[in-house]
Design goal:
- Helices cover 39% and strands 15% of the residues.
- It has helices spanning 59-62, 68-75, 80-98, 111-116, 139-157, 174-186, 200-208, 227-237, 253-256, 259-269, 287-298, 315-321, 330-333, 355-365, 374-386, 397-406, 411-414, and strands at 7-12, 18-20, 41-45, 107-109, 124-129, 167-170, 190-195, 212-216, 241-242, 278-282, 304-310, 368-372, 418-423.
Length: 428
């Protein structure tokens, strides 16, 4: 019997505008404008039990009936076999460029971390390790669903590569590398807008992948916020396709990111009696935390989501503590953070663009925000490395949130629990 697709369409969490699942470019809410960008489409998921996974290792085939891009392609007449073939074709190309393709990534109890942090045998730290994923982080998951939508659009319209608009992204790290990797695999032109502070190492990697890199200085006429984001938005106005990990700029990035939550839930379901009390996740722009929380809840697992930011940049915590909701004035809830700074430079977004989705997950799971002191950000990187994880300071920033609580008055209580973290962002 054919499985029903979970995603029925899209709905803006700010103004309740609906977008049909068959819309080929559901990037932004139709009511989002240049002067009012404070809208974000979320997948409208069929209530009830999520469709079971298929017997495939590739997450975008395994969980195909839960993904919006697949529901959209199916609604427009693309067969299941054609969708599977499209995923396989792109994955082969990605592996040719990056050396690895998309696979279910490891998730299990880390004896090294659990012992180092004083957890008991019946408790411990469970790690979802994304450093072996495409481009070394989870970011490619968010972007792959956009690329699949674009390629499905081409196949259904019969359009050629000569008609492709360039892709565009604003990022200085893992998201840029993931975007450039996928663009190279698909032979799609891409412009990457980065701050002037981007490291030369990242720049060399982007050059190797054939991306056109634009270092963005702040201009006198710029409004508050990231100048790279301003230039990215200008490129989109000029016709570029937003290939980005900010939900308000392209809702499809909130599709594939949910696969991380589904994989964790599936592993927990297969481990008799195992329940995670909480899961710590690093937050920059917020798409990952939003997707992780949504994926877990959709799959029937509700560990408390602990959203971790560094003390040098914590706009989400500020919004959460102020009692902000999706009905709050966005500019009041999420003004740009002044002077973001931390060793974990990949989570220094001065605005948590997907704050609404993260707050949804906090409320749905009984979670909270955690602000990690800079000394714990630095210590988390060392502890993760000592435990065998070859990650960047950004990649271990979720662990910094756990250290913050372990060093607090309830540290012994936390050591008696089973907690999860996500390590994402390979050391470069």
């Amino acid at each position: 019997m054919a499985l029903e697709h979970s995603v029925l369409g899209w709905r803006c969490r700010v103004c309740d505008t609906s977008v049909d699942i068959a819309e080929p470019e559901p990037w932004r809410c139709p009511r989002s404008t240049g002067s009012d960008r404070h809208h974000v489409l979320h997948p409208l998921v069929r209530p009830g039990v999520a469709p079971p996974p298929r017997e495939f290792e590739h997450p975008f085939v395994r969980f195909e009936h839960r993904l919006a891009w697949a529901a959209s392609a199916a609604a427009r007449g693309m067969t299941s076999a054609a969708r599977d073939a499209l995923v396989t074709e792109l994955d082969i190309a990605v592996e040719r460029v990056d050396g690895v393709g998309f696979r279910v990534t490891p998730f299990g109890r880390s004896a090294a971390l659990s012992d180092a942090l004083g957890f008991g045998a019946d408790a411990g730290v469970w790690v979802k390790d994304e450093t072996g994923n495409v481009a070394g982080s989870q970011k490619a998951r968010h972007l792959f669903s956009i690329l699949l939508q674009l390629r499905a659009n081409e196949a259904l319209a019969g359009s050629s590569r000569n008609e492709r608009a360039p892709l565009a992204i604003a990022s200085c790290g893992n998201a840029a590398l993931a975007a450039a990797t996928l663009a190279s695999a698909a032979e799609w032109p891409i412009d990457v807008y980065v701050p002037t502070s981007m490291s030369n190492g990242f720049g060399r990697e982007l050059d190797r992948l054939g991306a056109r890199v634009h270092r963005c200085e702040r201009r006198a006429a710029d409004p508050p916020g990231d100048p790279a984001m301003h230039r990215f938005r200008e490129a989109v106005v000029d016709g570029a396709t937003p290939f980005t990990v900010q939900g308000p700029e392209n809702a499809l990035c909130l599709d594939g990111g949910r696969t991380v939550g589904w994989e964790i839930a599936e592993r927990l379901d297969a481990t008799e009696g195992r329940v995670l009390d909480a899961i710590f996740v690093q937050v920059g722009g917020g798409a990952f935390a939003s997707c992780l929380g949504a994926g877990l809840v959709e799959a029937g697992q509700r560990p408390a989501l602990l959203a971790v930011q560094a003390e040098g940049c914590a706009p989400l915590d500020r919004a959460w503590r102020s009692g902000a909701t999706e009905r709050s004035a966005w500019s009041d809830a999420m003004p740009p953070w002044p002077n973001p700074h931390s060793l974990a430079d990949g989570i220094l977004d001065d605005e948590t663009y997907d704050w609404i989705g993260v707050l949804d997950a906090l409320r749905a799971t009984g979670g909270d925000t955690v602000v990690a002191a800079e000394q714990r950000v630095e210590r988390a990187w060392q502890v993760a490395g000592d435990a065998g994880f070859d990650c960047s300071p950004t990649g271990s920033a979720g662990l910094a949130g756990l250290l913050e609580l372990l060093d607090g008055p309830d540290g012994d209580t936390w050591r008696s629990r089973s907690v999860g973290i996500v390590i994402s962002g390979v050391r470069r």
